[in-house]
Every structure is written in C-alpha cells, then in structure tokens.
C-alpha cells in the first residue's frame, strides 16, 4: 500500500520538517512559552517518538502540526514543512483539506473522541465522503474493510453500532481506522494507549506494529511511556520544558542515553526485570514556563550541572552519528556554540 | 515552636530548603484577587457600585434625606422635581399629594428594601441550605421527607403562597419577611442538595469519613463551606427578587403599611396620580429598577467568577 | 477453600499476627437499567467484589493488582467501610469490623488510613494544609490543642514538605505535593495499616518515583503494613513483598512478589505480565496477546470468569468456577488446570 494522496509524492526522504517552532499562551501571570524553539524531522516510513512528561510541550507540538492549537494560544514562530510546504502559511481551508487526509491525528481518550449519539457508520463514512466525495454505499464498503483491517470482528454488523457498544480498546481501533481511512502520509498519535488497560494496550500496540509494517506512512508517537516507545519507534526525541533535549535512534536512547534528563527518566521508572534496583528519583519539579530558569532548563534538577549551564541554553548538536543532545556535558555542544558565536545554526535531527 | 526532627531520607526528593521562611500567602490575597477581577469586569464594577450606593443610602438615610419623609406640608402639594419648569432644588424629586418630599421617601425606602432583602435571604438561605445538606448527605428517609416537602411547596405559585400568608397573618414588615423566606428556602434546599450529592463522592469527604469524623461535623466542616459559593450566587440574585416582591406586596396593600415609606407603597400612592404627578411613581420605580439591575449585574459577575470545579490549580 | 474467619491468614502464613484479614468479602451493586428492562426482567447486579480473601502481616506490603473494573478499588473501600460489604469478614488486628456500628468503629478507624488516587480531589480546597493534616489529630484527641501545630509541622517535614507552608491552600501545591499532604494526613492518625489506592497513577513519571520512595521510607520509619493498589505491575513489584491479582471481582492468584512475577501460574497473570511494554530494545518476554475485551461485570461469564479470553480454556472452565487452591509457600491460584498440575 503506497501512500498516494492525490498529490505528487515527495522525492526526498523528509516528510515533516519542523523548524524552530514556538508556541505561546497568554496567562494571567504572563506569557507562557509551551514550545520554545523545537526542531525535528520525520522521514518517510519512520515512526518518531516524542517523549516527555506533562507540560513538556509534546502535545502542543503535535497539535501545532495540524494547526489545532486553541485560542488564546498562538504559534508565534517557526516553520512546519510538510512535503516542503509550510503549513503555518496555509489558510484554514487548506488545513481542513489536509486534516484526516494527508495528516491524521488520534488522541488519548476514545470515549470523548467519538460522538456518542452517532452510529459508527456515520462517523467513519464522514471522512470518506468529505474528502473523497464517495457515495454512502461505497464509503460503507470501504469502512467495513477498514474495520476488518483493525481487527474488529463482524464488521458489517458492528458498523451500525453506537460507540458505547464498543469497549475502550475497540473504540480506539475504530478511531485508528478512521485516521487511516485515507492512507495519510503522516499519522500523529497523542498518547493512544494511555487510557487503556494493560492487556488492551498490548493489543493496540500490536495493531500499530502490524499497520506500521503494512503501511508506507510515517508516524509521530507522542507519549510519556518509554515502554510503549520501545515497542513502536525508530527514533526518539526527548522533550523537557518546551524544548528537545535529545534525539537518537531507539536503541541509543534506551541503552546509551546522553542527556541527564533522559537518563533520569529511564532510571526512575520501575521495571519488571531488574528487580531490587533502587529507584532513583529526579529531584525537584518541572520549571515554570512563564518564567523559566536562565540557561539550561533542566539545570536546577541536574546532578551533573556545570556552572556554564546556568548562563546559556545549550542547543541540539550532533555528538555521535544520528545522535543529538543539548547539554554542555558534551564538549561538542560548547564548541558548536563558540564556533557559531551564538548565531543559531540550522540543525536537522 | 516544635523541634524539627532529623529530615528523613524522603526529603532527598526535594531541593533542600535551607533556612525556613514564613511563606503563607499574604493575608487576604484571595480577597485582593477577587477585587482585582471585579475591577477588571465592567458589569461587575457597575453592579458593585450600584449595590454599594444602595447600601450606603440605606445605612445613612437619616443623614442623606434632606427632609423628614413623613412631614406633611399641604402647601407644597405636588411640587414638580428639579430641572422641570416650576420645580426647585428644595425638592429634587418633587413632592407627593401630601406635600412630602419624594427624595427623602425614596431614600428611606431603600432601608426597607435592603433590610427586607437581607433578612429574607438570611433566613431562607440558612434554613434551606441546612435542609438541603441534610437531605443530600444522609439520603434515605431524611432526603425523601425534605424533598417531598420541597416539591409540595413548589407546586404552589410562589406569589400566591405569600399572599395567602399575608391574608391570614396580616400585613407588616416581619410578616413579609417570613412569607418570602418560606417561599424562597426551597431553592436553596435544592441547590445545596445537588451540590452535596456531588461533594459526598469526592475523595476529601471520603477521607474525612475514613478518619472517623462524625457526619454532622463533615457537613459543617467540609460540605457547607464548599457549597457556599453556589449559595452566594443564588442569594445575590434572590435579593433582587425579594426587593421586587416586597414592593409588589406592599403595592397591593399586603405588605408594609403606610406611613413607612417602602418603594412599593410609594408606587401604590402614586399611580393614581400619574397624570398630575408622574414623579411620585417614576422615581420609586426607577429606584427598584436600578437596584435590581445592579444586583443582577453583580450576581452575574459573581457566577462567572466563582470557580465551578472546586479544583482550583495554579 | 475453608471459609472460617482466619482461614486466609492461615493460608498466607500469618497465624494470628496479621494486621488485616479479609475473608470472603463480597459486594454486588444493583444496576438500575432503563425504564422497561428493570420492570420486566430480573434485577441485574454488578458483581464488583466476590469472595475476596487475603491477609497482611505487620510491616508487610501487599499489592493488589488488576485492570480497570476488577474490583481492587472497591475492595479498598470495603475494607475501610466507606462502602458496606454485603458479606464477608474484615478483621483489623484481630477485631471484627463488619459487625461494628459507626460509633464503635470510630476508634478503630485510626488504625487504618487511606491515600487516594486523585490528588486534586483528595484535599478539601477550602481548608489550609494545617487544618487538613490536623483533622485526624483533633478528631481523635491525639494531642493537646496547643501541640497540634507542632505535630502538623513534624508530619509535613516527614513527608518532605516545608513545614512553614501549613498556612497554604491545596491549590497552591502541585500534584505530587498534594499526595504528600495526603500521606501526612494519613499518618497523623498513627495507623498500623496504610491503604494506598493508585496513589501515583495520576502523577508524572519522575514525581511517581519520588512518591514511591517516600512511601517506602515512611513504611519503614513508621512500621506500617501497606495495601498498595495499582494497575501498574512494575511499581507493585518494586514496592511489595506479596501480591494478589484480581480479575472481575475475584482473586485469581496470590503469592509472594517473587513467585507471582517470576513464576506466574494463572494464565491471566501470565498474560498481564507479558503485556507490559518494557523500555528495552529486546522484549524480555514472549507476549501473550489476549483476545477480546474484559467482559462486563454485569454479565460475568459462567464458570471461570477468565474463560472467555483464556488460551487454555477447556470445558470444565466454562462450567465450574475454580477456587483458590493452595500450592504451598503461601501461593494460591484459582485455575482448574493449574490445580490439576497441567499448567
């Protein structure tokens, strides 16, 4: 199944190129910068994990790609290039055509994503009819296929059911089906398994794995759960307090994390298999994004903090092949800064 | 000051706090925030100013009124208000058919309205909230009895109830208060019962039960303070109702009796002479309207501001 | 499974020293169906907790795990008598709680306290931290009035909070800090048993680790028995010495943490463990993906409740409900095939 969306397929590898994204929210206490200069790329066919705890800006980043950030929040800077075109320069009408078609998004809570008073058939065929102008009967057939694809038994019958007649896991499958109906080049998944029970989560992860093999599309998986990331992602970007602190292929993030926060994150999660290991908590709390600390945002909680960390914010620098980190513990980061003398260099992790 | 124990290892989870400092929120910070919000809201500010004017007038009536409101002066019958031809600033709102100064009467009328308003609400809200909390928290028989009583009473038109009461017990200020309180307590009962049902399931109430706090103490300490915002909003809006109803009852002759100048009575006295002396009716009516408006604006703002979810976060 | 009180304690090896003994605990909630279904058909029940038995010894931490709807939170509330059990016995340090009136129960409530999952609903938003933590002290007259503040400050310090913040309101604290306040409140009463109902599930991962560490420390420091309820098995493995796995209102496996996690016997336990995604490149266990969804607790399957999803289900599983049988070393499993030695 090649991804064709009625548009000329991009020749180069990069499907999504986020450059220096900045998103801000005015609050009573001041301007809150939720996303502060985030850059990353997603290549064709790959699954990129965007990992971090609540408040780190990962969800806002995801929403920004589809320009779904709600007022009074504003995307105040940067570019989001999709197949080379800047999404931030497009009109709302153009974005509407993209959503659900070339780029789809699925969210955390299936119970509020599906409209409880409409049958599934209504909600599923809507996408096909709106974007492709399909007739109802044709759309129905396609939906039955899609339900089968995501593993729902008796799809012809269940298509006419209401959402509450499905369990949580089933609902999420339906949502995935809707998201993939038009074979999008990019799927954004925001905590797709967090609201589900463990055994159901395993089913959904399994499904996503299978779909990943069968589809040609790319995915951005937004989550706080490194275990889920380990199942699905090719590359991982770790976010903290509004910026990306480390990007690397999966194996390297898990086995050779470079940034102290990434290390801390891996160390503080209890695991089934390394019993007896003392849990090492990361001291302190996440910074206030209205008035973040000077210099590196993680520095107040970092055990390895150097003096320079309080002075300037480190930028993402490639310190090993495909492995980027924003931390002064690595001399290449300091060197890059000195070389460019503070002028931001284009980075494409 | 208790000696602090050696910090257990668990404090390794937090940055060290060397040197304790007193860090409670500055006093009344919540109130200051509220006032800040009020000032920022146009309708809130206007409403609050009107209400303040009303309270001020009621409180300082004797000082503000230029003349004794009951002083009759047949010579000055039907003097028009200032700014009209033949009017003068001696009687800014004119005089009535007995030569009494309308402005003074309107000012004193504010007293009646304010005291009626507050008394009625005090009684109705206290009694109604208590009933509602008991019904909501204990459920079962208490709930059934109280709510059936509420339903029964609600099936009667409110004004009819008040009129019947006044007809039986006679007119007068305190009778009006009782009649209106009887009519209004049911709203508080229903509101508080609903809120109590919700609160009862929240974990902090469960925690109080788990500690072993007696049920009445739970209602007093946990339930009522948390339903207070809802009550406050309802009460504010009800005050406007009470003022209007008191005026209506007095207008019908069922309420305050002359010579006490209630706004309703002023309208009662004046409406017959609308052609000859429109000011006798218009000024008291304007007072009622303005007061109502002010209270409703303030109540609206209050309702918008009060955090509905109880779970305030930073 | 013998049903006399104390049977659970004996099976778990506690023999009279148990802090908590739960036997045959049962709770069914009536379901109010729609207008007609209720009138015309028989009454339906949610079988939330059905015959649960286990015990916890002094200083021991027992983890109760399961997915949503398995009844673990309801079990906690039944033990605290925040909900009244339909049947069963709850013995706290030897005293039978189910037959006590609320007034008689009150002094015993001191000995068991609970910490809840939702940090935003577990503290009264209109009370200061001092008032919140002092409430148990005042309710049970544990310290003279003038010493209350000092005691509150000690408790706040013990949970890692600045004692001088006692004049603040809950909304001025973060989720993790609120859980600490909840713990301080629970400790104020001086309990022997601490029940923690998903205390870290609503917190960020890095804060979870802080609170888990805190609970561990407090347990040691105050010699508490801990009933830790969670759907997160990794956390339970870290904290608890014994574990009970629940499914649809019943305990399907009980044993030491090591036994249950290293050598799980019940098929559900095995599936549950295999489903956990680990942050490693190679997944350590073969993943058993269960088919279907958790059945509704209103329509509990006949026979073994797990049979509809069990890869090994046989005829007997569909007809007869298995009981928890003792496999020795305090390990109990409710499965026909395991009892027959075939799994």
Keywords:
heterotrimer, A: 349 residues, alpha/beta, Rossmann fold, 2 domains, eight-stranded mixed β-sheet, 23% strand, B: 314 residues, mainly alpha, MetI-like fold, 11 helices, elongated, disordered N terminus, disordered C terminus
Provide structural commentary:
The complex is a heterotrimer of chains A (349), B (314) and C (343). In chain A, the strands form two sheets. In chain A, strands 6-7-8-3-9-10-12-11 form an eight-stranded mixed sheet, sandwiched between helices. Chain A has a four-stranded antiparallel sheet with strand order 2-1-4-5. In chain A, 32% of the residues lie in helices and 23% in strands. Chain A is built from twelve helices and twelve strands. By secondary structure, chain A is α/β, with parallel strands linked by helices. In chain A, helix 8 (198-214) links the parallel strand 7 (186-190) and strand 8 (218-223). The two termini of chain A are 28 Å apart. Chain A folds into two domains: 14-102 and 185-283, P-loop containing nucleotide triphosphate hydrolases (Rossmann fold, 3-Layer(aba) Sandwich); 113-181, no CATH class. By secondary structure, chain B is mainly α. Helix content of chain B is 66%, strand content 0%. Chain B is built from eleven helices and no strands. Chain B has helices at 29-40, 42-59, 61-64, 102-138, 140-154, 158-169, 173-200, 203-211, 215-251, 263-270, 279-305. Chain B is elongated, with a radius of gyration of 25 Å. Chain C is of the alpha/beta class. Chain C has a single domain (7-111, 191-339), classed as P-loop containing nucleotide triphosphate hydrolases (Rossmann fold), CATH 3.40.50.300. Helix content of chain C is 33%, strand content 20%. Chain C has helices spanning 7-11, 35-40, 72-79, 102-109, 129-139, 148-158, 175-188, 205-222, 233-239, 257-262, 267-275, 315-319, 336-339; strands at 20-31, 44-56, 61-65, 87-92, 95-96, 112-115, 193-197, 225-230, 242-247, 250-256, 325-326, 332-333. The two termini of chain C are 20 Å apart. The model of chain C has no long low-confidence stretch (mean pLDDT 88). Chains in contact: A-B, A-C, B-C. At the B-C interface, helix 8 and helix 9 of B face helix 4, strand 6, helix 5, helix 6 and helix 8 of C.
